[in-house]
Design brief:
By secondary structure, the protein is an all-alpha fold. It has 20 helices and two strands. A two-stranded antiparallel sheet has the order 1-2. The chain is globular. InterPro entries: APC_superfamily. It is found in: Membrane.
Length: about 525
């Protein structure tokens, strides 16, 4: 070989359109995927009932700080490789192709589990509204089918249209929650806001094993913000918009969860919050608002809960679609998933595929006579969030290795400090979460589901690694292209070629060797010639 050799099984299809969404739109996509209003209704009352008190808002603040470390590391990786594959492409750069496949499978499985859990919650969120306006209940499958139809319709639209719909829901959700929080603070229990609502007076509570569980719950409540990385190719600035959007999403979620949980303490009274939360349960947020606001405002809050579920379903649909598109573009999954609609540049085939998966699963649950409710939703969401937590940990480790192995423009913070802090903190949270899995699921330690979730995650990793090894054996060109965003595989000789002999000049050229992970051209992005510019800085 006298120069770089380009290998491709077939020409890549047109990619996603750049310059469609900005950092603010991407931040609202991440906010919607995290569904903070669902956390405030389903998680916060249970934690307050256990006596956590002022530790709850502080735990959300601590979780936001830890995840900002992760955002610093992920933003640096996005600047290196903006890709719709998000964690999949980033893990490939740092930990290799099999690990990248594991990240992709864990992400897709985790987002699907969270999505199905939200479909189970949709019926619960709609029940009070149906009883109020129709005077009768509505079966869960009817609400789930209506939500599925909205998601399937909006999923094939241009990303800026879908982002606009999600952003509208997200802004309305933030406005309503801010109004409820303000009412709680302006009309506190006992007529004044006391320091006990935020100050930890009994420091012995910090020694309880529950503090680890509380921190794990707080971090898991942010799951979904990391999906912002999947919109890097479509951002106004592909190397910056998604990273900035992720940081903004974390800050917004931390403010909402921390501020609203503190306002609930103020409204219920610091000394009686546990009793009130135990009695009112999931209706705590709305019951406290009903004591201070007009009935229409409480009804609007319940509408926002349902709207928050729909927005989360649509946001999760978008990020799953982009993972399927990235895998299809690289021919890891069927190539049709990598096609885009030329008029809208939306990954229509991947979107329709995800809709069919969700629709067939819901139909199967209905035909099987299932009656999903809050407990089923909790199991699914916890399992999915744990899967996403492992993906975050893989990304943090990959960033630490890749950014320091290949020199770049990053400073010490983005290259070393943020990846180290995020790796350590996410590793600790993962240990705490799996250690306290029975409490997260609200089940006895020996219950089969408690063992089934780690088993399913391990099985997902093993299947992904097996998939990667099978591609390496049977489709080496496709295997070499994993993580390259559909670009042709480029082999760059590491040393100048020797002058050919007269006999070699007339010989048939042999097939070039497929590069390994660390070979120039396959692992080092600065040596890879892509057919598509990543866009302006």
């Amino acid at each position: 070989m006298n120069g770089p050799v380009e290998i491709s099984e077939e020409d890549p299809s047109p990619g996603l359109a750049a310059g469609r969404v900005g950092a603010a739109s991407i931040a609202f996509l991440g906010l919607a995927a995290a569904a903070p209003i669902v956390t405030l209704v389903t998680v916060v009352p249970a934690v307050l009932a256990d006596g956590a008190g002022p530790l709850v808002p502080w735990s959300f603040a601590a979780a936001g700080l830890l995840l900002l470390f992760f955002c610093g590391a992920q933003s640096a990786m996005i600047r290196r490789c903006p890709s719709a594959g998000a964690a999949y492409a980033q893990v490939v750069k740092g930990l290799g192709r099999p690990a990248g496949m594991a990240a992709a499978w864990l992400a897709i499985a985790g987002y699907h589990a969270i999505q199905f859990g939200l479909y189970a919650l949709a019926g619960v969120a709609a029940a009070p509204l149906a009883q109020s306006f129709l005077g009768r209940g509505v079966p869960w499958w009817a609400v789930a089918a209506a939500c599925w139809a909205v998601v399937a319709l909006c999923g094939t639209m241009r990303i800026e249209v879908a982002a606009g719909v999600i952003g509208l829901f997200a802004v309305a959700q933030v406005a309503v929650l801010a109004g409820i929080g303000a009412a709680n603070v302006l009309q506190p229990f006992g007529g004044r806001v006391t320091a006990e609502s935020i100050r930890i007076t009994d420091w012995t509570v910090l020694d309880r094993p529950a503090i680890g569980l509380l921190l794990a719950v707080a971090v898991l409540a942010f799951a979904g913000f990391e999906s912002t990385a999947g919109y890097a190719e479509e951002g106004f600035q592909p190397r910056r918009s998604a990273g900035l959007g992720g940081c903004l999403a974390v800050l917004l979620i931390a403010l909402l969860l921390g501020g609203l949980s503190w306002s609930m303490l103020v409204a219920a009274g610091p000394d009686r919050t546990a009793v009130v939360a135990e009695v009112r349960g999931a209706d705590l947020l709305f019951d406290l608002a009903a004591d201070r606001l007009a009935p229409w405002a409480v009804t609007l809050g319940r509408f926002m809960l349902l709207a928050g579920v729909v927005a989360a379903l649509l946001a999760l649909h978008q990020v799953i679609t982009r993972y399927l598109f990235a895998l299809g573009r690289e021919r890891v999954l069927p190539a049709v998933l990598g096609n885009v609609r030329r008029r809208t540049a939306a990954p229509r085939a991947a979107s329709v595929t995800q809709s069919l998966i969700a629709g067939s699963t819901l139909a199967g649950a209905y035909l099987a006579g299932a009656e999903p409710g809050p407990r089923t939703a909790r199991w699914l969401i916890v399992g999915g969030v744990l899967s996403i937590l492992l993906v975050l940990l893989l990304v943090a480790v990959a960033a630490l290795l890749h950014l320091n192995r290949i020199p770049g423009p990053e400073r010490a913070w983005g290259r070393f400090v943020a990846p180290v802090l995020s790796t350590v903190s996410l590793g600790v949270v993962a240990v705490l979460a799996f250690r306290d899995l029975p409490a997260l699921l609200d089940m006895p330690a020996g219950y089969p589901l408690v063992r089934a979730i780690p088993g399913c995650l391990l099985g997902c990793v093993l299947l992904a690694v097996g998939h990667a090894l099978l591609l390496r054996a049977l489709r080496p060109v496709r295997y070499a292209g994993i993580g390259l965003a559909g670009a042709a595989v480029v082999i760059t000789p590491s040393s100048p070629p020797t002058p050919p002999t007269p006999a070699a000049a007339h010989a048939e050229p042999g097939a070039p060797r497929i590069p390994r992970q660390r070979d120039p051209g396959a692992h080092r992005p600065e040596r890879v010639t892509t057919r598509r510019s990543p866009g302006p800085e």
